[in-house]
Amino acid sequence: MLALAQNYTAEHPSVAPFVEEMRAEYGFDPEHVRQLLAQAERRDSILEAISRPAERVRPWHEYRKIFITDRRIAEGVAFWNQHADALARAEEVYGVEPEIILAIIGVETFYGANKGSHRVIDALSTLGFDYPPRADFFRGQLKSFLVLTREQQVDPLSLTGSYAGAMGFPQFIPSSYLAYAVDFDEDGVRDIWNNPVDAIGSAANYFAEHKWKHGETVAVEATVSGEDYAQGFTLDRGLEAKISVGELKKLGWTPSVELQDDTQVMAFEFDAGDHKQYWLGLHNLHVITRYNRSVMYAMVVHQLAELIREARGE
């Protein structure tokens, strides 16, 4: 016999405080919130999924193969051809190249083919109420989710997304939706779930708001020599850590293209299987990590973008 799913009724210790916060902060009717949460279900599969993201358990050469495929490149070109006008307008308005928007949507949802099958309210309730390491964050996302569904007049029980509550073509978490989603086709609705034009504009707006620099280099491969090059690695100090190209040169790093010595970069290595790759990530790579806090993710987006652009003959 299958076990009955656990719902988030008033007996759960986190429900009553959450209901009161929604009333005090956003003016929600407490009974309405209680009824919604009573229909949300705790999902063990969500708790399992968040504990094993691909970026943490796979080396670069395996991770890259998941996303850089001939089919994903070809579908990216097809999506570009289908939505060329919207992509061109997004570049004009927001200063973000089409291939970057395509790569984000391609990596996140295979151009809308896989937007996630978890009910968003289940994902955010499970993580907000029963995942202590990041419960505060996900309760905040659950608040944002209820606000956006009220704003857009959408049934909170109807929307699906990823195991972490990310939604639509670009997989925005609810707070990102509230901050960056745009009504790019001007039909009165910010629809990232079903409207690729709104999704394109919203992804472009996200990058623009995080200071994407149009036309600038994203990452540069490098070679290393000597015994001191490992002192240049920055990722062990966090994604915000930077080092100047001049300092790296003194430690034995040689960029594959000329960079000014005062340029601040991330310096890291990847496991390419039979050898190591050494990379310098510039400002725009750091912007991509604002979308997903992983350098491997950012590099996959960057490389897929380049390959889509080349395949289309741009």
From TrEMBL:
- Xref: InterPro entries: Lysozyme-like_dom_sf, Lytic_transglycosylase_MltB, MltB-like, SLT_2
Q: Where do the TM regions start and end?
A: none
Concerning Gene3D superfamilies, the annotation shows: 1.10.530.10, Bacterial muramidase
Q: What residue stretches are annotated with the Transglycosylase SLT domain?
A: 12-306
What SUPFAM superfamilies does the entry give?
A: Lysozyme-like (SSF53955)
Write the protein's name: Lytic murein transglycosylase B
Species name: Halopseudomonas formosensis
Give the taxonomic lineage as stored in the record: Bacteria, Pseudomonadati, Pseudomonadota, Gammaproteobacteria, Pseudomonadales
